[in-house]
Structures are given as structure tokens and as C-alpha cells.
Amino acid sequence: MKILIVDDNNTNLRLLTGMVQKLRDCSPIPFSSPADALAAMPDLEFDVALIDYMMPVYNGVEFLTEMLHFEKYSGVPVIFITADHEMTTRMDALNAGAIDFLTKPVDFYEFKARVQNIAALAEAQRRHAESLSGGQMQGSDALRDQECEIIQRITLAAGYKDPQAAQQRMRVAAYSEVIARAAGLPEAFCRDIRLAAALFDNATALASDTSLLKRGKMTEADFRRRTNAGDADAASSSLLQLAAEIGRTYRERFDGQGYPNRLKGTAIPEAGRIVAIASSFDALISERQFKQAWPFEKAADYVRGKARSHFDPALIAAFEAALEDIRAIAFAETVPMGIAAA
């Protein structure tokens, strides 16, 4: 695994280079000048990029913008290194296309965990793309294992940016599984929806989306950007395709008044209808910057009352039947991904 490092401070560059050399199967490609790194493109070959935020000539965002003019780097995971703790700086980094950020002084153990996870994610995606282009059967165990690994590592990367939001996704995924099971759906689907629903609001997996950490109420533009994000990047395969389908459709409403496509009734895929219930319920019982958490029973009553308008009434019946399992998930200290159950 080749890791590009761009940092104008030679001390920091040596430090980061040494950290990369300590990682298994990783080799650094260091540059002290962002202009020199750009001049070497597109002949440079690397799988992950570590970019300092504050640099002369090109700052980190400007460097990344120039780098992405080369199509071959469009899918490369990018980590920004910054001494700035300001949210606006992090928003700029994420909005530019970064998947993660590390704060100076960089702790080696944090560096190792994050970079190894993202490097492994890049490798898993590469293997998955090769498997699909090689014409392997979509339902093969190998492809499913690759998809599980991709989803797990995407979720870990998202958790680095916002641990609270990561636990929200885990709860929504777990609610979706128990609702699907209470609805009498096949066990394989129940397991799959728990995995895929972990990406319900970030279905591209690697899309840079500032709305993930946005404070205050989401605008419709925020929701539309999220909802449509998964289409281009999701592979045409079972779990990732299901994740993209959920991302496209969980904001639809049973009465056809949702978005982005105003689908109605059973025209909304079943997974989207289930995650609509699970995500709405969790949003109600969760504290946000702009609202207090609702009591469990009040939130459950609200969701029940939206049968036929917002939600599929048959799935609301399943929600009701699964309510004690949902209560246990809601009040659990942490909720695991469910990969082991796959």
C-alpha cells in the first residue's frame, strides 16, 4: 500500500514518513512541496493521501482540488493533517473531499488505527472492483465478504469523524433488523438490512458530506445531496446496492409526499420503508443541537400515528411487535455493527 505524504514542514514530513514505515505493508511517498507533488502527477501511484492543511503556494484544500483534476485519483481516500481544531477548518477539509482528519501533534496509535483502516478500505474496494470486473458471481461468498469488510471500514471511518452519529447508524441498523424480522421477512434479508442500513445517511460510503457534522437543522438541499449520493459509487452488488437503495429511498413517504422522487406505497423499496421508520424513531429519541430527546413512548406514539401518511402501516405493525427489542437497542450503551451475524 503506497501512501502519499505532502507536508512543507520537514520535521513533520519525517515524522509522518516514519509512522507510515512502521505500518505493515505500507510505503511512504513523501513530498515537502505541494507544487512538486502536483508536477509528478499523474505518474504518481498511491492508494491513500496524507495532506497537511496549512502549506504555502497551495494549502491542503487547494492541493486536493488540483489533485482531483486527475481522474485516476478521484477514488483515493484523503486524510488531512491539521493543527487547527476549528470546525470550519474541518468542514473545509471534508467538503473538499477528505474522508478523515488527524490533529497535530499526531499520536502514533491514533494515526495507526485510522490510516490502517482507511488503507484497508482502499484495498478492499480495489479487490471488490477487480472481482466485479472479472465477472465473478454477485452472490459469491468472496464478494459478500468483501462487501462486509467495506461496510465495516466505512462505518469505522465515519465514526472517527463523528462517534455519536456512528452510534446512531448502528441503532438504526439494529432497529431495521428487528422490524424486518417482526414483519416475517427472510432471515437473510434481515441480516443484510442491518449491514446495509449502517450507511443509511451516507450511502456513498466515501462521499465528502459536510451535512454529516452540520450543526442546526438540515435543509432540503442537504438531504437531497445525501440521498442521491450513493448512486455513482455503489457497486452493482447485493449489500452495497442495498445500501445505495436505502440511501435513495428512506426519505420517501408512503403517501407519495416525500423526496427525492415522490415514490408512493410499495413503489418505495421495502428496505427504504423499513429504514424510514427506524431512522425517524431514532431521530425523535436522540438529542440534537436544535432539539431535546423525546421520551421513548412519546416517540413510539408519534411513529404509530404516521402510519399510512409517512410509513407503511404493515411495517408499523411490525414496529409495534418489535417494540421491546427496539427499547433494548435504544437504551444499550453501545450497539455493535452486526457483521458477525452476517
Describe the structure.
This protein is an alpha/beta fold and 342 residues long. It folds into 2 domains: 2-122, Response regulator (Rossmann fold, 3-Layer(aba) Sandwich), CATH 3.40.50; 162-341, Hypothetical protein af1432 (Orthogonal Bundle). The protein is built from 15 helices and 5 strands. The chain has helices spanning 10-21, 34-39, 60-67, 87-96, 108-133, 141-161, 163-182, 187-196, 220-227, 230-233, 238-249, 270-285, 296-305, 313-321, 323-330, and strands at 2-6, 27-31, 48-52, 78-82, 100-103. A 5-stranded parallel sheet has the order 2-1-3-4-5, sandwiched between helices. Helix 8 crosses helix 11. The longest helix has 26 residues, at 108-133. 41% of the residues are buried.
Ordered list of secondary-structure elements with their pairings:
Elements: E1 2-6, H1 10-21, E2 27-31, H2 34-39, E3 48-52, H3 60-67, E4 78-82, H4 87-96, E5 100-103, H5 108-133, H6 141-161, H7 163-182, H8 187-196, H9 220-227, H10 230-233, H11 238-249, H12 270-285, H13 296-305, H14 313-321, H15 323-330
Parallel strand pairs: 1-2, 1-3, 3-4, 4-5
Helix pairs in contact: 5-6, 6-7, 7-8, 7-12, 7-14, 7-15, 8-11, 11-12, 12-13
